[in-house]
Every structure is written in structure tokens, then in C-alpha cells.
Amino acid sequence: MSGVVFLTTDPVDFLVVGAGAAGGVVAKELATAGFRVVVLEQGPYLHEGDYSHDEIKFTIEPGLTNDPKIQPIIFRKSETDQARRMKAIEYGRQVGGGSVHFTANYWRFHESDFHERSLCGEVSGADLRDWPITYADLEPYYTKAEHELGISGLGGANPFEAPRSKRYPLPPMPVKSSGILFERATRSLGLHPFPAPVAILSQPYQGRAPCVNCGFCESFGCEVGAKSSTLVSLIPLAEKTGRCEIRPHCYVRKIVTNDAGRATGAIYFDRKRREVFQSAGAVFVCANGVETPKLLLMSKSKRFPEGLANSSGLVGKYLMWDNGASVQGLFEHPLNEYKGIQVTRLIHDYYASDLKRGFYGGGGIDARFDYYPAGFALHGLPPEAPKWGSEFKQIFESYFSRTMTLLSHTTSLAQEKNAVSLDPEVKDAWGLPAVRITSDYHPDDAATMKWMVAKQIEILEAAGALKTWSQPFDVVDNMPSRHLMGTCRMGNDPRSSVVNPFSRTHDVPNLFLVDGSNFVTSGRQQPTATIQALAYRAADYAIGAVKSGELR
Amino acid sequence: MKSTRRRWLSNCLAMVAWPEVLSAQRYARTAAKSPTSDFETLDADTAGEIEAIAAQIIPSSGGPGAREAGVIYFIDRALATFAADDRDAYRTGMALLQQKRKQLFPNSRSIASLTGQEQMALIRAVETSDFFELLRTHTVLGFLGNPSYGGNRGKIGWKQIGFEGSMAYQPPFGYYDAQVNGEEK
């Protein structure tokens, strides 16, 4: 945490906004390449000792995520829908960002994800497009991410996986009862289960201790540092160079540009809510798929009246949602799913879109349990179960150790009307406009989830479940969305995209955006690996551009 | 990263805004039964009334319930800390509940003094209200949340559901993975 401190008036080479999954990668890459870097992070700088197994603190209170009491979020399904204050979206708000509190699923995209428009054709009501890059462009960076962060998995075990140049650096995590039941059932159905690739250490790695199977991954920070967040893997490497300063509690309100249309730095509120300007030669915004477009829309100027890097008018548009549905299954014997990491087995058999189904979309299905004790009693029980009384008690007491979940992770189509914008009225605690989210499913998104739920039930029944039940899946039930994608999409054409194939904005030559906002399609959720691969690639490109003199 | 708890989160947020229609109404003050310790936010009478409801939400049938877990102490402390914003909701919600009690049982003096059957009838009359959902949520958190919050005394709730609450585990974790590993558990 201690280390170099730069003067705000002294231009650093790079300013990075957001110290999360992407910002941590960019900071480490730039600092180790010899550049001077300041990273501004909205949230605090926490460490292992700050985390605990406290369900109330980390799941009922905002915990490691954005707090809508100080940063309100306005939600509406459509422009004509009544806007409401809701925690519609959620992001990790601390050094390490979402990589600290995520479940740690670490899926590469498939080759098909990059050219689904060519494969599937036009989808009415959506703007399905090919990415301007291919899987092969990202493959070296997926590999680099897996090895620098520490990912456990079994390469080649998933027959649908795209080619990989290197194995995972660590073997898979120990299988849980949910994994065993899922494996048996899916094999009996002719499907292809494989060990979940996760950003959690199954063995000691690079001076870090392995997982102790405590079970508190999702929503929690890892108390032993075994979850491969940027906080414990890359940010220490960035700081060790003596050229990277991580500044927590810094909330950026504007990217500043000069008359030549180049970014010169950013204005932020510091811990005491004083306005500070940090000067920089180039800027990376890695603030997530909602905060990044919000910052661009707030960074209006004479030259950029519609917001920065927004000549296409697409900043904030095409927000893609965290789609999927959960089905629970009750078994005869104890599974004790609260022990161990959340997910140990999954399938990608239904990943590819198959137009014979009658709609665009597909997904992965994993076997998991991501309830903690109180959350299970409150929201994990069958819908028909009583909500109070002796039967309620009897059910939550006898089901907790015997229940598992199958969760599908499904496509979200890019629709222009689904968007992040600035609320015209509501302000946050700093006086900045509240985020307004407009989002609803495309009919094919809903059709995919329904189709997938039937498969999930089929698998649970094949596994011998005594009973199955599913949650409702209106867009509001899939809330808060934690996979925030598509809002500054990548493309070759400045008229139909915000960033180029290297995450550099078309409009401002020394401004890069890299996080979920770059995504052209949603993949099948689990965006972290792709976000980090994009970040490595963008940093690589920026370093080359400086060295060639093209960026300066 | 996707979470099955998210519905719960958004529900919580939906509860932030409460109608304050009944804030001026008085609520009955009757003798509390079990809570005798000092409370931070509740008076003993109100605590007794709330506890009577909590003990119907998680009764002591078939093992310890809300009463044994000290849920009322959890609620009292919650209203002083992370749930301080819910104090008005409790004030108005309890007033409504008392009004309902008088309506249903005109000769009664308090919720705590109603019979179990009467208390259940009272809950059935309000079970779809936002306040009941809040009280239900707090009761469950007080039964199954971290004991440091004043409830779940002696980890009584965790024992009831079979949650060990350890800092680390070794496989096998459950019956089915133990079976595969050739071990009985």
C-alpha cells in the first residue's frame, strides 16, 4: 500500500480510472513496462484482514459493492416505464474491484462468440454484430491472464473449448457433491461435464497460499488470498515497480481534454470530497460497463457536447444484462454444499446458438450452491413453501444441507434501447447525476432462459433430485446485474462503435476504455476472463504505440 | 458471478421507502414477557411484542427457535446499527399490527398475551405487508446471521440447519463426493 506518491501537477505517463479486473491488469502492464502510473479507485483499499464470513455485512449490506444509498440507481424497463430507485446493477467498489468478490468462474469465450452475426444472421429487434477481433487475437492474452493471475482448471476437458496454447497453471479444485451428482447425470444424458475453471488457487502459487474450502467466495473477499483477484496477484507487482500509485477513495467526475481534443487528465473527488486534478499523458478508463459510460457522459465539453468519445452517440447504449436462471434440487443425503468453492463442474453442451431451437441464444450450466444460511431460508426455498411458522422452519432446517443449484448463464442480446444514461433529476452524494438504467429482455433472451430451465430440471431429475424448483426470471429477478457489458462497444467503424479493436477510443487518440463496456456480444456471461484478456491486449498495444511514438 | 441472492437484495432495497401513514398512532404498551435486558433502541414492551411475532415466524417447535436464538436482541441492535433506517418502519408497522390486533381481538391487551392460535391469525392478516416481510427478514437474520450481531446465540440457528461455521474444510464435503472417494461420511 505504501510506495510512490506522484504530484497531481506532475503529469504521469498514464492515468487509470478503476483498479478492478481490467484496471489492475493495465496498471501492472504499464508500470512493469517502465511507465509512471496513477490508479484512481472509487472504493477503499482493503486486505485479507478486512474480510470475514459475515453474511450480513457482505450480502445484506453493500459490503464490497456499490452502495445505492450514496450512489442511487434509477431503473426502468423502457423509456415509458416508471423509473424506480433500485439496486439494478452491482459492481465491486474497492481496489481489485469485482475480482475481489466474484464467484471466480473463469471462462474463455468460444471462437464462435466473436462472429455470431455471421453464424446466426440478423436477429430482429437486436443489433447482433461480429467483433472486430477473433479468438485467435485474444488467445495469447487469455493464456497470459491465466498464468499471471493463477487459474485452476483442466485444459482439454471441455470438448467445446477453443484451442489453447498452454494448460491451466493449476489443477482443478476438489469436486463437491453437487459436482459428482451433476457429472453422473450429465454423462447419463450424453453431455460433457468438465471441472470448472476458476480464479482460485488449488495449490500454492507465486507465493500465495491455496484455498482452504471455506465456501465464502461469492460476494466475499478471500481471507487467505487464494482468490486470484487483481488485488492479490497483479496490483502488488505494479506497486513493486515503484512507478505505480494506487489512490483509493478517489471518485472521478470528469476526463479533461485540451483544445487539440486530447485527454490531459481527470478531475476527481478525493477522500475528503475535495476536487483534485491529476495530469496525465494518456488515460485508461476501466471503471466497468456502467461507470465508464457514465464518466464519459459526464465529461462534456464544448468540443464534446454529447460526452467524451461519443461522436457515434453510442456511449451507454447496448447494455447487456447478467442473464440466466437458477433451479434448485433437493437430495436424499447431505451435500453440505456450503463447504468448498461455489462451482466445481459445468457443461458447455448448450453454449452455441442453434437456430433450430427457434431463437438466438445459448448458455453454460454449472452445478453450485451460492446461498449462505440466512439467504437460503429467505430466498432459496420452493415458492410454495410457507414463509413463516413451524413448516417454514422445518423446511429450511432440513433442506439447507441437501440442496444444490443448477445455474444457467445465458446470452443477452445487444439492444440499442437498453442503456446507461444520466438521470436528469436524481444526484448522488457528491452531487453527480445518478445512473439511470433502462433494460429489459429481448424475447430471445427470455426464450433461451426458459429453454435452459427445462434442461436444468432434466439434469437435476437425472441426478436423482427428490424435488426441483426454480426462481422467477423477470429482468427484475435477475438483479442486480453484475456483468455489465456492451456500453462502449468495440468496432472498426467510428460511426457504429466507441473503441477500436485495441480498446482505444475512435475520437480521442490518448483515451482507452477497457472493461465489459467493450463487449460486442455477451458471450455466455462470466465475462472476467475476456475483460482481462482485452485489458492485457490494450495495454500491450498502448505500450507499443508509445514506443513507436504514435501515442505521443 | 451471477447470484441467486440477488432477488433478495433488490427486495431489501424496495423496502427502503415506507409509507408513513400511521406514524402518529400510538401503540399498545403491555407487559413484556421474556426480554429483560437493556435494549438499545426498543423499550421492553415493544420488544416483547416483536418477540412474540418473531417466535411465530421461527417457532420453538422441533428445536430452538427465534426466542432461544435471541432474535429480539439482534433486532434491537440492528435498529441501532445497519438497519437504523428501518426504525420508522417498525414504529408504523407495529402500530398497524396493534390496530389489527384490536380489530381481530377487541378484548386483548397485547400481542404477547394472545394465544399462539390468535398470534398466527394476526400474522395471517398482515403476512403480505412490507412490514411483515421486514420483520420476517430480520427474524431470519437474527436466527442464522453471524452471532456477533446479538442473535443466533450459541450458533443455535447454524446447528439447526447443519452449518458448521468453520474457517476451513477438507474434502470429502458431503455424502456423494465421499461415496466416490470410497469413504463413508
Write the layout of secondary structure elements.
The complex is a heterodimer of chains A (552) and B (185).
Chain A: E1 12-17, H1 21-32, E2 37-40, H2 55-60, E3 73-76, E4 84-85, H3 98-101, H4 116-120, H5 135-149, H6 177-188, E5 194-195, H7 235-240, E6 244-247, E7 251-257, E8 263-269, E9 275-285, H8 291-298, E10 326-330, E11 345-347, E12 363-368, H9 373-379, H10 390-399, E13 403-410, E14 419-427, E15 433-438, H11 443-462, E16 467-470, E17 511-513, H12 528-547
Parallel strand pairs in A: 1-2, 1-9, 2-6, 3-15, 9-17
Antiparallel strand pairs in A: 3-4, 5-11, 7-8, 8-9, 10-13, 10-16, 11-12, 12-13, 14-15
Chain B: H1 6-14, H2 44-57, H3 66-69, H4 71-80, H5 87-104, H6 116-126, H7 130-144, H8 156-161, H9 175-180
Helix pairs in contact in B: 2-7, 4-7
Overview of the molecule:
- The complex is a heterodimer of chains A (552) and B (185).
- Chain A has 552 residues and is of the alpha/beta class.
- Chain A is 23% helix and 16% strand.
- Chain A is built from 12 helices and 17 strands.
- In chain A, strands 1, 2, 6, 7, 8, 9 and 17 form a 7-stranded mixed β-sheet that branches. A 6-stranded antiparallel β-sheet of chain A has the order 5-11-12-13-10-16, covered by helices on one side. A 4-stranded mixed β-sheet of chain A has the order 4-3-15-14, covered by helices on one side.
- Chain A starts with 11 loop residues before the first strand and ends in a 5-residue tail after the last helix.
- The model of chain A has no long low-confidence stretch (mean pLDDT 97).
- Chain B has 185 residues and is an all-alpha fold.
- Helices cover 50% and strands 0% of the residues of chain B.
- Chain B has 9 helices and no strands.
- In chain B, helix 2 packs across helix 7 and helix 4 crosses helix 7.
- Chain B is elongated.
- At the A-B interface, helix 2, helix 6, helix 9, helix 10 and strand 13 of A face helix 1, helix 7, helix 8 and helix 9 of B.
